[in-house]
Amino acid sequence: MLHLSMPLPEWARTSVGNSGIFAGDAEKMAFAISLARSNVEEGTGGPFGAAIFNRESGELVSVGVNLVVAGMNSVLHAEMVAIMAAEAVLGTYTLAVRGRFELFSSCEPCAMCLGGILWSGVERLVCAAAADDARAIGFDEGPVYPESYCYLKERGIEIERGFMREEGKRVLELYRERGGILYNRR
Amino acid sequence: MLHLSMPLPEWARTSVGNSGIFAGDAEKMAFAISLARSNVEEGTGGPFGAAIFNRESGELVSVGVNLVVAGMNSVLHAEMVAIMAAEAVLGTYTLAVRGRFELFSSCEPCAMCLGGILWSGVERLVCAAAADDARAIGFDEGPVYPESYCYLKERGIEIERGFMREEGKRVLELYRERGGILYNRR
């Protein structure tokens, strides 16, 4: 058995433990962005946060923050951490069989995460900052095209981009101001 | 600390333990395809295998087989397992800082894995079966376009596709003949 550690920081575990039911999109996105902001402020990783919610109850299912550097693992983007954690909690390789789930991300997903979202079984994706905002501070987002989003939509995934974009973008700018490292660029 | 299990089957661990230095592309790809074939024959997962080698020494660094169903985790495609295992072994979030590495895959990567390869730090990707071969037996490969491959090449990743394609394709056909499940389609 190979074991992989996803070293979710102490502040994130506390944050999750204290959360409950989330009422609407703005509250859910504010939470995802707060994860990204805390990850920068606490110096625990990249400026990205994500959370998966039960779409019907508003219940928080899992959180993700960027753990690439802390986990020494290039796969551990915020969205991927949230997806793997949700599937582990619910004991399934597709969330679709456990109910209706939505993923909120503080920034549009990179190519890997967009593909990962397709396989995860979430039925809705909401993003704050744009991929261009991430590129503006020096991150590479990989091969994502307008057709990539169409591909997911055609397979039944609802997608909203640019929701609370300015708030998401401010976290990226904070990361740049603090001289955060730009891991895994090519 | 979140822990994630990657339940590499017993036969795969034995197979890795018995391997040593690999001499050339054909030997490396035959090994990756043998992982895919064993995963089907042993009933331990989907028809996909991958392996990462040190490009200069020919040493095997890590293996991956599809563990989506066994690991209850939609991220655990063969390439992603190989990438995460290699990074764990070498203690880094980018293989590029540890030497020159290449990834051999029994089939062209899905959208998630292609993005993951970009971030992994491998400098060469060699694939056997085509995405069309995977689609022909019912798998979805996600939003991968000709530009996606160009994107990786422009960032310095060498890519060879269709190397020993027929051998890779035969494993996919074996999976269909055995009635293997088509997880995570949408």
From TrEMBL, chains A, B:
Gene Ontology MF: a single term: zinc ion binding
Organism: Geobacter metallireducens (strain ATCC 53774 / DSM 7210 / GS-15)
Domain CMP/dCMP-type deaminase positions: 23-152
One GO term of the biological process aspect: purine nucleoside catabolic process
Top-level taxon of origin: Bacteria
TM regions (residue ranges): none
Alphabetized PANTHER family for the sequence: CMP_DCMP-TYPE DEAMINASE DOMAIN-CONTAINING PROTEIN, CYTOSINE DEAMINASE FAMILY MEMBER
Annotated coiled-coil segments of the chain: none
Keywords annotated in UniProt: Metal-binding, Zinc
Signal peptide: none
Protein name listed in UniProt: Cytosine/adenosine deaminase
